[in-house]
Structures are given as structure tokens and as C-alpha cells.
Amino acid sequence: MINFEDELKKFHPSLEIDEAEDVIINHNLTDFTDILVQMVKEHEEKAQKEN
User: Fold this and answer.
1) For a FRET experiment, which of 1, 8, 14, 22 has its CA 20 to 30 Å from that of 38?
2) What Å distances lie between residue 21 and 16, 29, 49, CA to CA?
């Protein structure tokens, strides 16, 4: 039977994961929230111009 406590003690994340985390965190990536915020701003600006 697998002893999960022992397995967790032996676990070491791969270097590729650590490198990927650094790249993701250190880059300013556009996500869905950024796109949605921009769309709302554009909609509000358009509505103000029409009034």
C-alpha cells in the first residue's frame, strides 16, 4: 500500500514548473478580465460621446 506521507516527503517539483511559474508571473499577460475591463471602458466612452 502507498504511504502518502512518505511520498509527499520525497516530492520535489520539477525545475520546469518553477521556471514556468517565473515566466508567467513576470510577464504582463492579457487575460479575459483585462479584455472585459477594456470593453466596458470603450462602451462607457462611446455612451458619453453620444449624450
Assistant:
1) 22
2) 9, 13, 42
